[in-house]
Design goal:
Distance between the termini: 67 Å
Number of domains: 6
CATH topology of the largest domain: Collagenase (Catalytic Domain)
Largest sheet: 6 strands, mixed
Helix content: 10-25%
Structural class: alpha+beta
Length: 785
């Protein structure tokens, strides 16, 4: 059961496409004689009969859907509160012309306590939305039924726009005499979900609307040679009479209410949108489990309806996270049943498993995300992505990864053009531009304003607003004033010198009152065609809305690199401001904690990839490649000498060609100052304190020098015959100056296998004294050093 609005829907999106659960509220009007003479009076039998016709009429659509062999279902929830208890009115609706509907509809809104300052349509949207929440449905609409049981012809009085039933599209309401047949209610419900009349005097061939902006090609006036109108629930009386019992209508009529399956997979286009999954993971050999983290969200199809709010809406949910081991059956891991979900799991896998795969799925439609896969020795990645791969330590210098070579996580990879030049990008920030000054193009971004209804470019500049937050202001020629409030009337357009694949815009809510602000950006190609758009995540709670002063960032990506302009404005009658815009291909990606990466929407082309090693003893070579889906890029890190390692004489920390106690002291002083640590990339210069050549500075580095001094009679001066050091490096020998022996009263503690027990001979210049504490030197169990 729906517990919140469909994702993307505003409170005025109460009937955008005919799928899911629909709340139906029949409102039977009972005249009380206070204004018009009372000529009609509801009886219990009449109430039952009309409710039965309404039920049959709406269920016609369920029966028609069942004949299409799709995955979809319809469920109608009828609230008969205002039918079993007819609503009093001073009017006798059937004795008036149809145009007087606003009198008794307005009276009903007062009866149920809707804000009297609202117009009829806004008031009905508020009521229908409250019914949607009450009935826990995806959509909701109402029917006002005028008692016509004793009226001669069962129609409204002549002279109005309509004599029979009529409807206000987009989830509003139907007005109908009580004696109309069930087929009439089916026909009028089609209008509620954007279907158009197809008979003469109703709709025309040139009309179009609905989620896909479907043309009304079955209209009576279709000029196509040889056109023959098909039987349809939206056509004339005879056609309706044939369509109703057969439960049929032509494809384009059904497309108007959202029933269009372009790829023939049994899922209508509006919901046939892949779910999104971003994941990371790998096999943990310590726990023998597979660690998985990820985020998932549903996707929306852009709403091309020329009417209504044009909100991008879906009923899909992240019903389940599923896992398959060794290409076996999919099993459910978690069942969030939400529009977005996050995961942080450690999962049991068979001891001998080879591969695992993950996906998320919408249970109602079967729509899934792309599949993320991993092998026992490789990290999780999405093979469908144009750019995916891993970083690893090439311990055997073979150039390819073999089992046991560790994966390297959190590695930044810089992306440039194949010739090494930086990828094109632009960055406009209101905070960096002069205040109260016309805007000039910045980084290939030209910003203009547009004010309706003139549709002409308007002057733009920056000014301070909202606690001195710089925003883009547009000059409204008609009102002769500057405004930062972007919405239905005023918008900002950003045009790029070069097509781009990525745009992000910083927006701020400027809507006062209880309603949150909804921000939207739309992307257009060189021909002016809409290619994508993004709207703030609208939900039936405050967290999904832009309240006054709150900021969000909206993003658009186009793998074909064809975005040449974007339009920024408030959505659904709300107001926002714009403070910044950025464009271009992101020039850096980063591997996850398991060493893998999968990046979406990298445009076609050849690039140079330069990973930056996080350890000073690792080095990556740049790679020029054209990413291809299914072919991972493998970045191998070779092992290199530490930049703080003396390759000629490792124990010669000072680099003066001799090994003395000063060399040990330099390591000890560094440890006292900075502590034991892995060398960072900004510590590559300085004395050669990494005696062990492992990129780590520990007590073992000092101990290596001390042991060397012991083994070589206290030290080695220059100008002597070469000998082999403990590390097999040529060194020289010289005489030494003996200092007092180091303390020897040490005992094995804390799991240390051995302690220093022999005297140490120190080297020092004549007449100098050196005190070298050797407390805290830890021995390596595995190397006995």
């Amino acid at each position: 059961m729906a517990a919140e609005l469909p994702l993307g829907a505003t409170t005025q999106d109460t009937g955008e496409f005919l799928l899911g659960r629909i709340g139906v509220t029949p409102i039977f009007l009972e005249s009380d004689g206070s204004i018009d003479e009372q000529t009609q009076n509801w009886t219990p039998q009449e109430i039952d009969e009309v409710l039965a016709k309404i039920t049959d009429g709406v269920n016609w659509w369920s029966d028609a859907l069942d004949q299409l062999n799709t995955v979809h279902t319809l469920e109608f929830v009828i609230d008969d509160t205002y039918a079993r208890n007819p609503v009093p009115t001073g009017y006798e609706p059937i004795d008036r012309i149809s145009n007087h509907y606003d009198d008794y509809v307005g009276g009903f809104l007062d009866f149920v306590g809707v804000d009297p300052s609202l117009q009829i349509d806004d008031g009905m949207f508020e009521f229908n939305n409250s019914q949607r929440e009450k009935l826990q449905t995806d959509w909701a609409f109402s029917l006002f039924i005028a008692d016509s049981s004793t009226q001669n012809d069962g129609f409204f009085e002549p002279g109005g726009s309509f004599r029979g039933a009529f409807a206000f599209a987009g989830g509003l309401f139907i007005i109908a005499p009580s004696t109309r047949p069930a087929a009439t209610f089916a026909h009028e419900m089609g209008h509620i979900f954007w279907a158009i009349d197809e008979y003469a005097g109703g709709g025309n061939h040139d009309d179009s609307r609905g989620y896909y902006n479907t043309p009304n090609t079955n209209a009576w006036d279709n000029p196509t040679p040889g056109f023959v109108q098909q039987t349809s629930i939206m056509a004339g009386f005879d056609s309706i009479g044939a369509a109703y019992p057969s439960k049929i209508s032509p494809a384009n009529t059904l497309a108007l209410v959202g029933w269009q399956d372009s790829d023939g997979d049994g899922i209508f286009d509006v919901l046939d949108v892949p779910l999104s999954l971003e994941g990371a993971g790998g096999f943990n050999s310590q726990t023998s489990q597979f660690d998985f983290t990820g985020t998932a969200s549903v996707g929306t199809l852009p709403n091309r309806n020329p009417s209504g709010q044009q909100s991008d809406i879906t009923l899909n949910r992240i019903s389940r996270l599923e896992m398959a081991v060794d290409e076996g059956e999919w099993t459910t891991i978690e069942s969030p049943n939400t529009y977005t979900a996050t995961f942080d799991l450690s999962l049991d896998v068979p001891p001998d498993f080879s591969s695992v795969a993950f996906r998320v799925i919408d249970a109602a439609t079967g729509v899934t995300s792309e599949t993320w896969t991993a092998q026992r020795d490789t990290p999780l990645r999405a093979t469908s992505r144009r750019l995916s791969g891993m970083t690893f330590l090439d311990a055997d210098a073979s150039g390819s990864r073999v089992s046991g070579e560790p994966l390297l996580g959190d590695i930044p990879i810089h992306i440039t053009a194949s010739d090494g030049s930086e990828l094109p990008s632009g960055n406009f920030a209101a905070a960096d531009a002069p205040i109260n000054t016309p805007l000039s193009p910045v980084d290939g971004i030209t910003i203009t304003g547009e004010v309706l209804p003139m549709h002409a470019d308007a002057e733009v500049q920056l000014a301070s607003d909202l606690d001195d937050t710089p925003l883009v202001y547009v000059f409204d020629v008609q009102l002769q004033s500057w405004t930062a409030r972007l919405g239905d009337r005023t918008s900002v357009k950003a045009t790029f010198d070069e097509p781009t694949s990525y745009v992000e815009v910083d927006v701020v809510g400027l809507q006062t009152g209880d309603v949150g602000a909804y921000a939207r950006i739309e992307a257009f190609n060189a021909a002016g065609n809409l290619i994508d758009r993004s709207t703030t995540d609208i939900r039936n709670d405050d967290d999904g809305r832009l309240s006054f002063g709150q900021q969000q960032t909206l993003r658009l990506q186009d793998p074909d690199n064809t975005i040449v302009s974007v339009r920024i404005a408030g959505h659904a009658g709300t107001l926002i401001g714009m403070s910044a815009i950025r464009t271009g291909i992101p020039n850096q990606i980063r591997t996850d904690a398991h060493g893998g990466f999968s990046i979406e929407n990298l445009p076609n082309g050849e690039y140079t990839f330069t990973p930056v090693a996080s350890q000073v003893t690792h080095r990556f070579a740049p790679m020029i490649a054209t990413p291809t889906a299914g072919t991972p890029l493998l970045f191998a890190a070779e092992i290199v000498d530490s930049p703080r390692f003396n390759t000629v004489l490792p124990q010669d920390v000072s680099g003066d060609g001799i090994v003395t106690a000063v060399d040990a002291l330099q390591v000890i002083n560094d440890l006292n100052t900075l502590g034991a640590r892995a060398l960072s990339l900004d510590e590559i210069d300085g004395n050669k304190i990494d005696v062990t050549n492992d990129g780590l500075i520990t007590a073992l580095d000092a101990l290596r020098v001390i042991n060397f001094l012991n083994e070589n009679d206290g030290g080695i001066p220059p100008q002597s015959e070469p000998i082999e050091s403990a590390d097999n490096n040529p060194v020289g020998r010289s005489t030494t100056t003996d200092l007092p022996p180091a303390p020897t009263a040490l005992s094995p503690t804390h799991g240390i296998d051995a302690v220093l027990t022999e005297s140490v001979k120190w080297i020092a210049p004549p007449d100098d004294e050196i005190t070298v504490p050797i407390t805290g030197l830890v021995f390596d169990r595995t190397t006995a050093e």
